Amino acid sequence: MIDDPDFLYLKTINTYLWPVKLIVMKKLRFSLVQLIIIICLTAGQNIAVFGQDLSKTPTSKTMNETYPGGSFYQVQHYDQLKTRKHPKNIILMIGDGMGLAHAYSAMTANGGHLFLENFRYCGFSKTYSADRYVTDSAAGGTALACGTKTYNGAIGVDPEKKPVENIREKAEKKGLKTGLVVTTLITDATPAVFVAHVASRKSLEDIAADFLKTNIDVFIGGGAANFENRADGRNLSKELKDKGYQVLYNVSDIKNVKSGKLAGLTAQGGNPVMPERGEMLVPSTETAINLLSQGKKGFFLMVEGSEIDHLAHQNNASGVVMEALDFDKAIGAALNFAAKNKETLVVVTADHETGGMTLLDGDYKTGKVSAKFTTGGHTGVVVPVYAFGPGADQFTGFMENIDIQKKMCKLLGLN
Ligand code: MG
Ligand code: ZN
Question: What is the per-residue pLDDT for 415?
Answer without folding.
Answer: 80
